[in-house]
Structure formats: structure tokens, C-alpha cells
Design a protein that fits this description.
The chain has 354 residues and is of the alpha+beta class. The chain folds into two domains: 66 residues, no CATH class; 186 residues, no CATH class. The chain has 13 helices and twelve strands. Strands 1, 4, 5, 6, 7, 8, 9, 10, 11 and 12 form a ten-stranded mixed sheet that branches. The termini are far apart. It comes from Zea mays.
Length: 354
Amino acid sequence: MHPKARIHADPVREVDHFDCLPDSLVLLILNKVEDVRSLGRCYAVSKRLCGLVSLVHDVYVKIDRVVAVDGDAEGTLNLSSPKPRSIFSHFLRLMLFTIIKPFHNMRSPNGTARPLFPQLSQHSPAQVLRNFTHVRNLRIELPSGDVGTEEGVLLKWRAEYGSTLENCVILGGTRVDRKPVGGEHEPALEDNGSMPESFYTNGGLKLRVVWTISSLIAASTRHYLLRSIINGHPTLQSLVLTDADGQGTLCMGAKQLEEFRENQLSASACSNRTQVPACNMKLKYAPYVELPGGMALQGATLVAIKPSPEGSNGSHPNRKEAEGFVFGAFDGPFKVAVKTLMKRRTYLLEMNGF
């Protein structure tokens, strides 16, 4: 007697809903991801994602720390620790460890055993980004600011560059603290916005000059280091290089990037940075500025910088554009500080290129 035949239903094939999504929608999602490390992981998932990741328009690169190119563990520099004083003097011979780490064990999506990024330790940031061939908006965040300051001191700067400096604004203060409770701050002796005589004699002016030069050096160094990234990504329309401390921001728009590619950079003879052109500066000062949220800024200083006519590349901004850049340089309470300082008396200074 034959055993009873059993009838088995064919297994139901599961539908991969992700495969049903059109490429345009997946690409929209990937553009929202932005983070280069997360995109790097997506790159290794499948052939389809590999092809789409390379088409991403918006990329965000966050640098947590750097490691010496030779891979020596003792050469590790943890930039999340107290602020390094010479990050840019070492930047050209360091690699971006936490950016490249997600790519370390990647294999080529065609199934071969060849690593996607051979000789990982020799790759620069520009090489990491080379697989993103359609980047339009790139934002890079360094782990800390470049200019060392004492505790409690405020120093923020924002610079706009083409092939050379176009605009720069610096906001500083000797101390940021809470407003006095139960009373108002005593008004300054001068009510017309003038600087007190002590500003010239107690080193106040000298300190502001140091802030200005240090910020310009930091900006020009960042600008110089971006040249390989800009030249390797002709689709770039917006580039921002900032830091986790929010101290300094270098920005370049579509017009600036195009002008950067068309003109040769003027490198400084003394270091790996772009030469700072001769500049005109407008300095405004207030002994005390109240900020929103119950805070106050002492020794508040605003410095607006633009190249002098002989130091510019023919793209000298008009007064309205320059003022618009100053007003829009900072957000939050610092925007209020800028508006307050703009009402103060202006002191004109000139600076030679360096």
C-alpha cells in the first residue's frame, strides 16, 4: 500500500518592498542622510545602493580625530580633548581616521575580494570623497576651533572666500557671563560709542589685533586645504568648513567656487595657507552688551574685514552686500550682539597682506 501523497503549497515569495521604490525616491532619502560614514555603509550594501550613493548631492563630513599617516598609535591626536594649538600645521600629514573607518572593511560590490579603498592609511579626505561624483552641497566639521583662547573668552569668525578672501567678520568678547541679578549694569562713561582711553593703554586694542590676525590665518589655512576637494568636484555649488566649537566658519557659494577654479591661488611663502590680501577693517566696540537669555558680553568687539581695492580680484563687494554678510554671519544671541555693535562708532584700520 502506497503511502498517502502529501500536497505542499509552493512557498510564498516575499516581496522586497525596497526594490519597488524608484531610484529617484531612494536618492532623495540618501540626500537626507548626508553623513559620509552612514553613506559609506550604504555603499557596501548592494550594487544598486552603490550606484545611487555616488549620485548623492548633499554630503556632511564630521571629523572626530586624526591619526598619523604612518599608523603609529602613539601619534594619535585626540581632538576632542583640550583644544590643540597647531592642528593645521599637522593637517597635511594626518589622515581622517573616523571618516575613513567605515570604509575600512568594505569590499567591492561586484563580489571581488579587493578592498574598496586599498592602502587605507594613505587616503586623504579628497580621496575619500572621490566616490561621490555629484556632490553639490558639502559641509565639513572639524573637531575644534583653530584659535586658542582663555576660558570665558568669546571668539567667533565667519569668512567668505573665492580664490582669495572676499569678506570676513569677527565677533569677540573678553567674557560671557550672566547679567547681574537685582540691578542694571552701570552705563559706560562714553555714551556716543567711543572707545575708552584705557582701551588703548591696557592692551585691549592689541588683543583685538591678535584675534583678527589669528582668525584670518585660520581661515586662509582652511581655504588652502580645500583646493584638492574643490578641483576634484566640479559639481560643487556650496561648501562650508566649520568646527564643532562653532568658533569659525569658512563658506563658498557657487560664484566663489567658479572663481576659485578660474584663478590661481596665491599661497603664503611661510606656511601652507592662502595669502591674506591687504585689507580694510571696521572695528566697533562696546564695554558691555546684553544678550538674550539673561547673558551679557563684556568687551564686545566686532571687526568687519574686506580686501582693499588693490588686494581684491575684481570681485569687491559693495557696501550693502558687505553689511548683509555681517548681519547674517551669526545666529541666536550673537546676532543680537552684532546688531547692537553695528550702532556703535566705527574705527577704520588698514592691514598689509601677509
